[in-house]
Amino acid sequence: MQLEFTRPRYESLITAEIIGASGYSGAELLRLLSARNDVRLKKVTAHTFAGKKVEELYPVFSGRLEMEFEAFSDRLEGVEVAFIALPSGEAMNVVPQLVASVGRMIDLSGDFRLPSPAVYEKYYQHQHAAPSLLQTAVYGLPELFFDSIREARLVANPGCYPTAAIIALAPVLRKGIITPRERGGVLRSISALQKSTKTSAPTKSADISTRRKCNRFWRVKAGSLYPFRSSRIWFRSRGEFTRPFTRI
Fold this sequence. Notes:
The chain is of the alpha/beta class.
């Protein structure tokens, strides 16, 4: 499926909608977009909280954002850009419904970050619901793909670990300090406890303070997101080096 884009003639403000606005990513988008003078939020959707005022769920927006969460609809009249802040696995079902009614889409999940259905299925362990859109998505790392992002209809927002790894590796690859012929390197990323962690391991501050624990040491899903467009990066998984990709 080809996604050709012609910028609609809207008013000077960029009109936007957030789909999945009640979650962590959606709330952060609310904060960022509501503070901009060049963006007007037209609609915010949240299936669970449809009909509830935004300030009721997030009091921080009291007096600043007088909007209600609405149920999702694929009719986005007058919306120039749609932000999809849904969990991975859900966005791929929504994006195809928006193609005909919105100019640009920015997906914050991992649904459109990989280049092919086969690669996606390998790392996410299920089939992609919109395989024809994978090749049209632009990886949203402006440090490397600024021009492509400007023209893209569908932008796949990068994840946290890949962003840190790619930005760190890009200069040394471009300068030839390390090359694809070498046996790779070590990328060590440390973050706060993931909210999705469901184990019996200690999670309170007193238990984890100053401690570090490995999360899926040999099998890291984010490892599938470390390819490079102009140079090839190898990622070690289960003791073997995976095949290089040609897309970041």
